[in-house]
Amino acid sequence: MFRTRLALGAVITAAALALAGCAGHTSGASSWHASGSGSAPGDGGQGGGDQGAHPYVGASTAAAAAKPSATASASPSAPASTPASTPASPPASASTSPSTSTTLPAPGGDGIIRTTGSDAVALTFDDGPGPDTPKILQMLRAQGIKATFCLIGVNVQEYPQYVQQIVQDGHTLCNHTWKHDESLGKKSADTIRNDLQRTSDEIHKAVPNAPIKYFRHPGGNFTPLAVQIASELGMESIGWSVDPFDWNTKKWSGQQMTNHIVSNVRNNTKPGSIVLSHDGGGDRSATVAAYKTLLPELKAKFTLVALPV
Ligand SMILES: [Zn+2]
After folding, report:
1. CB–CB of 245/282 below 8 Å?
2. How far is the CA of 70 from the centre of ligand 1 (A)?
3. Which end of the chain has fewer CB atoms at under 10 Å, N or C?
4. 126 in active site
């Protein structure tokens, strides 16, 4: 497991980042969430808004404003991107593995990972696969960028060939539940377990034996029980630290949405960010257009990684 490779310093860094994330979490909900459909998420929270747009739209929550202010100061102590400066690693083999792509911070007290724990940036695409997934994949391929895809079971059932392409291209898989039930985490343990297992089983019908190491609760509405069950099924729970709200097609559309996504991701992504966007769950043409601009920019500024498996 990659976590065993973490140096003590990195663990401390991770803990600091997690705390920063938690602090941001409580103030994360954007005010316009409330101006959506008015549907309450039903949990104290910050989720919600806009569920009516389409069934898979994730109410984006939590870490929207969780900008890990500690990131900048933490970076120097994070696993070095230069192999030469890893004095703590005993075996020679350590120098052969790029630390930026093989380590994640230990999760915070809530069990959720929201940053990469290094200078690397992770792009994550949710709610697919869908009709726009091949366009995202083509752009990533053209730029030589690896990312992480959080898949919905019913969409895997509909587009298994895109799941195969995702894996062939070397991206990381994440379980995003069977049909994007935003309150799944509040249901019984059996219900949660069956949902996650069914989703992973459907993914494995398309790509037998492909690792599914990550779980992201719809809407970011993680509960301790959901996190625990995901862990029992071998999955880490991942949140995010940058969210351009590309799912909110009620708020923006067309070129306006594209511009919004570009500026939001451009302005908020920093070393260690996990960026949330959507390749599925609706018309993602604005997201596709935005990443046409963003991918070369991000690639020039950051090391872009798939979450390690
Ligand atoms: Zn989602």
Report:
1. no
2. 27
3. N
4. yes
